[in-house]
């Protein structure tokens, strides 16, 4: 992709942003309606003010004669304030609903494609995408999109109400109005590119900084603190420069709009001024420009341009949203291609596992590159398989395929049903998984274990804790099972974290247990203890275990050696 967004791409992204509003059209229409009703109040306000001035100055009426106008004016002020309040509330709800909808799309897609597809993205980059860039869509949906509709409706309304009193004033407004959108477009042509570069700089800075924080111990160990500090400084400086470019564009846009708006209103004021001096004799249908017509037109002249000025003010929100949408839509499109392609037939649900048969099975990466294969094997329940092989041979890829996170070619059948026709949600309910570095939430031990089964009873929870040999450890903690484990389980040893993960896996009854080197990061003594726990508790389900060496504690029906793209079976 080029360094700048071409016009066609910007149109595509703008269309994508608008498509997201399909489920929220009622809220959008409500916002526009509140804005239009507020404009009607402004017209009523101008009429009342002009009548008050006409009666007090020209007709020489006393104050009592115009008091009803003042009461009406106060009522219009209150109504307008109420409509503005309601519109702001509606706009916020509109932006919030759309942000939640888009964020849900991203999270659902990430959940659908699984870890292999998102492993190429940094944590900081993903965080920036899911939080900051989606937040930057707020003003587009809450401000720009409703204002874009009002910017065409309100000026037409003003022209319609001014024209019957003075055609010259209406003509001046009509002729000068195009200046604002023209210069707004000229100023904003490069705004999307500036914002896009700013987002990329922010994503790089976030990922770079987070990765350095995670590796702080290693950086200090190798005395690279100064070099990494300089690298972060350069990334931050690059982000600062790009941020200032965005602000410069926004200020330039506002300045241009204010300049041309002021000129347009000044032309209207000069016309009426020369009309009252008797130098100009056209514009009025009766031949005389009345004070009412002059004040009415001058009061509405700023309101004629205000929607266009507001649109210009929010124009940078459009550019910002297009830049954010470029990253979001690209991310969604990339993940969509990474999703396992399901045939266009009804999916099949299974409630047990009798056989797993592979014929000429080639496991593919998320971008459809062959990882390993063709593989041929046949498993009949019950089975307990050890899968061995050198690093990079594709052992974990086979587990990720069975988890439904990788595509494949060839054939993989569960109970004689092709795998890519299975209902993945129902299939995953039959599985349990344990890796060498299982993720634990920054939460209590209780909530981490209950993640596998939120409806588990207290007895089932205690059984899982006992079977994972966590009882004594939990008793020593100040808050017991409700003790917080901290970010990345910082308050636990690796062995304790693995036991909590085992208790979580035990709480979920399964038909197939996938173990991905669950003891690889543990010392020998802890590894033997974990292996003993697994051997004791998992004897009623089918098991596939990825390991590097055979332990005397665990026994297997078959040992598979994965090498040279083939599975060699040792019984």
Question: What does this protein structure show overall?
Answer:
This protein has 571 residues and is of the alpha/beta class. Helix content is 61%, strand content 11%. The chain contains 20 helices and ten strands. It has helices at residues 7-19, 25-58, 63-113, 115-118, 123-135, 138-162, 167-176, 179-188, 191-214, 216-221, 225-276, 291-313, 315-338, 395-402, 424-428, 445-450, 458-467, 471-475, 494-506, 524-537; strands at 355-364, 370-380, 384-388, 408-414, 417-418, 431-435, 512-516, 542-546, 558-563, 566-570. The strands form two sheets. A six-stranded mixed sheet has the order 6-7-8-3-9-10, with helices on both faces. The protein has a four-stranded antiparallel sheet with strand order 2-1-4-5, covered by helices on one side. Strand 7, helix 20 (524-537) and strand 8 (542-546) form a beta-alpha-beta unit. Helix 6 (138-162) packs antiparallel against helix 7 (167-176), helix 6 (138-162) runs antiparallel to helix 12 (291-313) and helix 6 (138-162) packs across helix 13 (315-338). The chain starts with 6 loop residues before the first helix and ends with a strand. Residues 340-345 have low confidence and may be disordered.
């Amino acid at each position: 992709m080029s360094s700048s967004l071409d016009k066609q791409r910007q149109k595509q992204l703008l269309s994508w942003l608008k498509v997201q509003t399909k489920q929220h059209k009622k809220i959008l229409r409500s916002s526009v309606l509140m804005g239009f009703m507020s404009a009607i109040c402004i017209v009523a306000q101008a009429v009342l003010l002009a009548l008050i001035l006409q009666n007090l100055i020209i007709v020489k009426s006393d104050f009592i004669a115009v008091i009803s106008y003042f009461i009406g004016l106060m009522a219009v002020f209150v109504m307008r304030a109420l409509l503005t309040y309601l519109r702001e509330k509606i706009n916020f709800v509109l932006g919030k609903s759309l942000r939640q909808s888009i964020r849900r799309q991203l999270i659902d897609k990430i959940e659908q494609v699984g870890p292999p597809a998102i492993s190429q993205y940094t944590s900081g980059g993903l965080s920036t995408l899911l939080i900051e860039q989606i937040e930057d869509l707020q003003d587009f949906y809450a401000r720009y999109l409703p204002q874009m509709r009002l910017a065409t409706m309100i000026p037409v309304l003003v022209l319609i109400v001014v024209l019957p009193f003075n055609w010259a004033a209406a003509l001046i407004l009509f002729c000068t109005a195009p200046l604002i959108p023209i210069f707004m477009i000229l100023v904003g042509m490069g705004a999307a590119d500036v914002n896009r570069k700013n987002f990329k700089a922010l994503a790089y800075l976030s990922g770079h900084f987070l990765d350095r924080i995670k590796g702080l111990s290693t950086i200090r160990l190798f005395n690279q603190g100064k070099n990494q500090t300089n690298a972060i400084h350069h990334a931050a400086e690059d982000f600062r420069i790009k941020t200032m470019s965005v602000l410069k564009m926004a200020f330039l846009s506002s300045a241009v709009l204010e300049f041309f708006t002021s000129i347009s209103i000044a032309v209207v004021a000069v016309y009426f001024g020369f009309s009252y001096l008797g130098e100009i004799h056209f514009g009025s249908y009766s031949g005389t420009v009345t004070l009412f017509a002059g004040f009415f037109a001058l009061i509405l002249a700023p309101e004629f341009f205000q929607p266009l000025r507001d649109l210009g003010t929010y124009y940078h929100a459009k550019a910002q949203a297009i830049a954010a949408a470029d990253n979001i839509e690209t991310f969604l499109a990339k993940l969509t291609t990474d999703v396992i392609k399901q045939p266009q037939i009804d999916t099949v649900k299974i409630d047990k596992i009798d056989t797993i048969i592979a014929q000429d099975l080639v496991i593919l990466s998320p971008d459809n590159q062959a990882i390993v294969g063709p593989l041929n094997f046949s498993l009949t329940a019950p089975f307990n398989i050890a899968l061995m092989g050198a690093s990079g041979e594709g052992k974990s890829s086979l587990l990720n395929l069975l988890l439904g996170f990788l595509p494949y070619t060839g054939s993989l059948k569960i109970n004689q049903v092709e795998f890519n026709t299975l209902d993945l949600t129902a299939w995953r309910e039959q599985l349990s998984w344990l890796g060498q570095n299982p993720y634990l939430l920054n939460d209590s031990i209780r909530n981490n274990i209950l993640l596998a089964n939120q409806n588990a009873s207290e007895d089932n929870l205690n059984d899982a804790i006992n079977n994972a040999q966590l009882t004594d450890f939990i008793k020593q903690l100040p808050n017991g099972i409700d003790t917080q484990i901290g970010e990345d389980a910082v308050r636990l040893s690796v062995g304790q974290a693995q036991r909590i993960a085992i208790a979580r896996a035990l709480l979920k009854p399964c038909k197939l247990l996938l173990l991905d080197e669950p003891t690889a990061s543990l010392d020998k003594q802890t590894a033997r203890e974990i292996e003993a726990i697994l051997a004791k508790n998992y004897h009623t389900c089918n098991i596939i275990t990825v390991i590097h060496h055979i332990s005397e504690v665990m026994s297997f029906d078959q040992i598979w050696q994965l090498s040279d793209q083939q599975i060699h079976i040792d019984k």
